[in-house]
Amino acid sequence: MVENYCVSCHNETRRDGGVSLASYAQVSAVVETGAFLGTITNTNGFPLMPQGASIPDCEIKQVEKWIASGALNN
């Protein structure tokens, strides 16, 4: 999901918003702050991402379950 929706703008070269999501460690750090889920669900004052697109609800639910399960590197 991250590869499909995020990495084109949030990578080591581009880093839109000062954020890279090119590695598990980088994704994990953003998940821990609540920003990752906040941006894909447009909650808690975070802007909706990805800009100009939307992630299907079923994929958001998968992310929510992944985070609730400890956001493992799998």
3D architecture notes:
The protein has 74 residues and is an all-alpha fold. The chain has one domain (2-68). It is 45% helix and 0% strand. The chain contains 4 helices and no strands. The chain has helices spanning 2-5, 24-33, 35-41, 57-68.
How would you briefly describe this protein structure?
Helix content is 45%, strand content 0%.
* Average of pLDDT: 95
Structural class: mainly alpha
CA-based shape? globular
For the record, the count of structural domains works out to: 1
Low-confidence stretches: none
DSSP, total strands? 0
Ends: how far apart?
A: 12 Å
Count up the helices: 4
Which band does the percent of strand residues land in?
A: under 5%
Describe the biggest sheet?
A: none
* Helix-strand pattern: HHHH
In helices, the fraction of residues equals 40-55%
Query: How big is the Rg?
Result: 11 Å
Task: Annotate the secondary structure layout.
Elements: H1 2-5, H2 24-33, H3 35-41, H4 57-68
